[in-house]
């Protein structure tokens, strides 16, 4: 009888210890709660296709990343990369135009902004589908005009291009043109009419940028980094909407100062970079509205002058 009581006590003690092992004390009221659910929890599906270099910079494709390149190497990589993309697109009949910060760089002097970590181009959703069908995962050789630079790029199209709304936000970039040497890339995004009934003729990408169809087409011919390129028809309104008019007149930003004589952004050690740059009492210049773009004719220029002045 005594042995039976002892065994029963051991079983009870074991049960209490086991319960305590899977319980925690609530800091608010002292109640014991299960720390682990007895049912398996469904983790959210990781849908992200393109992977960057963790949180180091976010501007390198993880597949080709080995180390962060220096300032001059980055600029050289981006310059030849955008030349290669524009030349390849023209050769293959791919309608594309420069966008976002790359378009802002064009506005200033027809070159990339030297503090940019990557570049941006856009295309229609139909063109995006076409390159997905015809060019996905193709590699492209590039030789500079002087024959001194040889590079190779891969055109990678996100399998989520069928989704023309933001979704979970993991696949807002539709495709990339990647330098296989170091992983630097051009972001490619498509725009489409996603609400034809309530917002006809309004196009948007998956990152909340919206345009009227007449803001984009007809595209304008210009040059960028020394090669033929295309820009949206209403490039000025697009830039002001995205960056505000300040971006068209600020002459000190991200450790650089605008050189009025040479029309270049030069490194300046006395110009803060990062958030501090926004707090400067920046000098402004007179906007040189048309760096290298088709004029559109006499009446078009009169309209632009009235619009701006």
TrEMBL record:
Topological relation to the membrane, as annotated: Single-pass membrane protein
Organism: Choiromyces venosus 120613-1
InterPro entries: FKTN/MNN4/W02B3.4-1, LicD/FKTN/FKRP_NTP_transf
Primary site of residence: membrane
Top-rank taxon: Eukaryota
Keyword Endoplasmic reticulum found: no
A Gene Ontology cellular-component term: membrane
LicD/FKTN/FKRP nucleotidyltransferase domain boundaries: 91-196, 203-244
GO biological process: glycoprotein metabolic process
Residues in the signal sequence: 1-19
Keywords tagged on the record: Membrane, Signal, Transmembrane, Transmembrane helix
Designated name of the protein: LicD/FKTN/FKRP nucleotidyltransferase domain-containing protein
Pfam family, one: LicD
Subcellular location: Membrane
